[in-house]
């Protein structure tokens, strides 16, 4: 979409907004009203809060700011301000009910599409290349992924359905890929819908290292678990051990033991844990402990991005591991097309120039890096998007999951969360220094 102008840009933005709404509608129509207003976990908002919050952000940015229109519901701004009310408190607020919330988001969308059709897409940084519409699309898709995580936490019968993710399509893969030392361009200054924390592009030197060709699988993770990895203090960081013992963590979230084997519950379906899929629902601390047990470490964020984007033939950084084209179903497991990660080796067409697989899609990958702004960072359009989260308490995750929409992921995209989090679709892969022998 970099070259799109005028009408085509508007059509592209309208299509992206419409696709996001189709998904929000499907996720909220899948359950009854009682379920929509219920809090399924203290970690999550009721689904009806997410829905009206999506509308509220769209009203603030597209209707009021870009469009300069009259507010629709200034009385509810406070209720849906994520900074005023922590998730645990949201059920006790006088929230819009399911039908009110649905009517509100539809009304906002009508106005937003009218603004998109009429306002000039230049002259203001917020509307340049329809940025505000891209930002709001990504915001809605991010909440859709959050709502998908709420579905995973919800008790009861399965209500979401999708075809199984593809099985392995690649031949034998090496366990690791070597990434040569040298500089590469990290971040972007040209991607039109990139958010403030992905900017600006800047050169980073990365020492030579080895990176796992694929994310760590359930099968590999089981070896760690079965060899007593959760009980051995030496594999864990101090904070990780404290967390693991205080909460009696003994396996990835949603796993349980039955008749001698490991099972998992996924969106209401119980099944044996498949060995060849990337492990998911592990915390940063579990990822770190596994890596130590394996004689490795987690990659830094810069290492991850170099492995994903650097093309040694041109010296350039790509938008995605496979090149500059938008993701298709052949490249990556994205967009909730499937309700879980695909087997490792399922996306040979999505491999990076250096030969690393499944960097985009399947599972978010923990990195060892704290969330900070790049050199030259400037908050845009508001500090609360990223800047207020900068600091040592958040770790960066990369690459998106099966639940991430293609519009909300790219080689430069950065996610962040607390190292204890496991309800997100988080996995990892390991790295090791090139100079250290085996
Ligand atoms: Fe939000």
Summarize the structure in words.
This protein has helices at residues 6-29, 33-37, 47-66, 98-118, 131-153, 218-226, 238-246, 284-293, 301-309; strands at 176-179, 182-186, 202-206, 209-212, 255-258, 261-266, 269-272, 310-311, 316-317, 364-371, 391-398, 414-417, 426-427, 431-433. It has 438 residues and is an alpha+beta fold. The chain has 2 domains: 6-153, Four Helix Bundle (Hemerythrin (Met), subunit A) (Up-down Bundle), CATH 1.20.120; 166-438, paralog of FGE (formylglycine-generating enzyme) (Alpha-Beta Complex). The chain has a 4-stranded mixed β-sheet. Strand 5 and strand 6 (261-266) form a beta hairpin. Helix 3 (47-66) packs parallel to helix 4 (98-118), helix 3 packs antiparallel against helix 5 (131-153) and helix 7 (238-246) crosses helix 8. The radius of gyration is 21 Å and the shape is globular. The protein starts with 5 loop residues before the first helix and ends in a 5-residue tail after the last strand. The relative contact order is 0.14. The mean pLDDT is 96. The structure holds fe (ii) ion. Fe (ii) ion binds next to helix 3 and helix 5. Fe (ii) ion binds at residues 53, 57, 82, 139, 143. Keywords: Iron, Metal-binding, Monooxygenase, Oxidoreductase. GO terms for molecular function: gamma-glutamyl hercynylcysteine sulfoxide synthase activity; iron ion binding.
């Amino acid at each position: 979409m970099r070259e799109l102008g005028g009408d085509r840009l508007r059509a592209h933005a309208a299509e992206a907004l419409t696709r996001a709404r189709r998904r929000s509608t499907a996720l909220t129509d899948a359950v009854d009203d009682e379920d929509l207003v219920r809090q399924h976990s203290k970690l999550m908002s009721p689904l009806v809060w997410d829905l009206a919050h999506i509308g509220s952000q769209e009203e603030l940015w597209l209707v009021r700011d870009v469009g300069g229109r009259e507010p629709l519901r200034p009385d509810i701004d406070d209720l849906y301000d994520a900074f005023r009310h922590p998730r645990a408190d949201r059920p006790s607020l006088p929230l819009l009910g399911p039908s009110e919330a649905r009517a509100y988001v539809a009304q906002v969308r009508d106005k937003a599409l009218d603004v998109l059709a009429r306002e000039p897409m230049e002259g203001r940084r917020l509307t340049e290349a329809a940025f505000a519409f891209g930002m709001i699309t990504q915001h809605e898709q991010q909440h859709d992924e959050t709502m998908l995580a709420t579905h995973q936490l919800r008790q009861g019968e399965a209500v979401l359905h999708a075809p199984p993710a593809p099985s392995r399509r690649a031949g034998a893969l090496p366990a690791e890929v070597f990434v040569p030392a040298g500089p590469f361009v990290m971040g972007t200054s040209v991607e039109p819908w990139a958010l403030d924390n992905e900017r600006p592009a800047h050169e980073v030197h990365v020492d030579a290292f080895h990176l796992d060709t694929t994310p760590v699988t359930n099968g590999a993770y089981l070896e760690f678990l079965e060899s007593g990895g959760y009980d051995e203090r030496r594999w864990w960081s101090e904070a990780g051990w404290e967390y693991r013992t205080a909460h009696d963590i003994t396996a990835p979230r949603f796993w349980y033991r039955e008749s001698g084997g490991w099972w998992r519950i996924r969106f209401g379906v119980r099944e044996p844990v498949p060995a060849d899929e990337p492990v998911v629902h592990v915390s940063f601390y579990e990822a770190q402990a596994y890596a130590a047990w394996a004689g490795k470490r987690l990659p830094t964020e810069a290492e991850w991005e170099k492995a994903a984007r650097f093309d040694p033939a041109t010296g350039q950084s790509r938008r995605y591991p496979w090149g500059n084209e938008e993701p298709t179903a052949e490249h990556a497991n994205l967009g909730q097309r499937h309700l879980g990660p695909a087997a490792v080796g399922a996306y040979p067409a999505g491999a990076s120039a250096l030969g690393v697989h499944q960097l985009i899609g399947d599972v978010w990958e923990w990195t060892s890096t704290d969330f900070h702004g790049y050199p030259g960072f400037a908050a845009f359009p508001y500090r609360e998007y990223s800047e207020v989260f900068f600091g040592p308490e958040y770790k960066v995750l990369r690459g998106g999951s099966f639940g991430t929409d293609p519009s909300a992921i790219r080689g430069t995209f950065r996610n962040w969360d607390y190292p204890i989090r496991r309800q997100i679709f988080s996995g990892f892969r390991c790295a090791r220094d090139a100079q250290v022998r085996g």
